[in-house]
Amino acid sequence: MNAIKLEQEILVVLLQLERIDLMKEKIIVGIISKHNPSNTGCRKSYVTDATKQAIFDNGAIAIGILPTQYEIHYKGNDNVWEDDLTEKEKDDLFSQIQLCDGIILQGGREMDNYEFIIAKYCYDNDIPILGICAGQNAIAKALGGTSFKIPNPEKHNISRDYVHSIKIDKNSKFYKLVNKDEIMVNSLHANSIDTCPKLEKVAFCEDGYPDVIESKNKEFYIGLRFHPEDLYKKDENINKIFKGFLKSCAKYKEKCFI
After folding, report:
1. Which of 181, 192, 195 is nearest to 237 (CA)?
2. Which uninterrupted H or E stretch holds 210?
3. Which residues share a beta bridge with 210?
């Protein structure tokens, strides 16, 4: 082997080691893309700016996780979902998840089967996951839970700014995140969690609807009915949610590199 070729191979190895070091340093969060519910001629998948910015502003890297199936299978408020991906579609989906140290399920008007599949995969593999609004429904339904349309949406489907307070169970993981037994949240929803096997309801609004659900047995498996991405810049209590989520992502990354 000549000296030039040896130098080139050494350089490649050094670059690979540098890349591994960078991967160890940066937390990567996958935000599950939603389908645009109002098509204008072509199908689109999107990540909201507020959600990705909350991750970047807290020192991590946000990437979009794309659905691997072309067809859209909206589930609406249907409590039944199915694992309808082919093995290749599922492998491509999980390969994206495996690039990440944690996952966020976004809010939105609709949910697709792949969101439930991802939520179940994260639960089974103890991958940190934060479900926001519709994402809360997804993590509950992924484990056999149900939701229902609330009878007073005019009181809850109001604003991305503060609307009402929630009271938090002091024995919950969520309480340890915010270190408060009551915080103010926003409210943009017409549904609520009814049942959530394997998960616990740990924070409630004054009407008794669960604003936070969590798994006691997982590092971070939490669903929020409100939208923290719209409040984190002006409310440190809310930003503690993202900080705590990223801390769990860091633990997961460290475990994966051992």
Report:
1. 181
2. strand 210-214
3. 204
Q: Which two tokens stand for residue 80?
A: 């039944």
Which of 185, 196, 180 shows the shortest CA–CA distance to 225? 185
Distance CA 212, CA 20 (A): 36
User: CA-based diameter of the chain, in Å?
Assistant: 77
For 95-150, list the strands marked E by DSSP. Answer: 102-105, 129-132, 146-149
Share of the chain above pLDDT 70, in %: 88
> pTM of the predicted model, to two decimals?
0.89
Neighbours of 80 (CB within 10 A): 8
- What phi-psi label fits residue 67: left (phi over 0), alpha (psi between -120 and 50 degrees) or beta? beta
The per-residue pLDDT for range 132-188, each reduced to its tens digit, is 999 999 999 999 999 999 988 888 888 899 999 999 999 999 999 999 999 999 999
SS3 90: helix
CA distance 241 to 239: 5
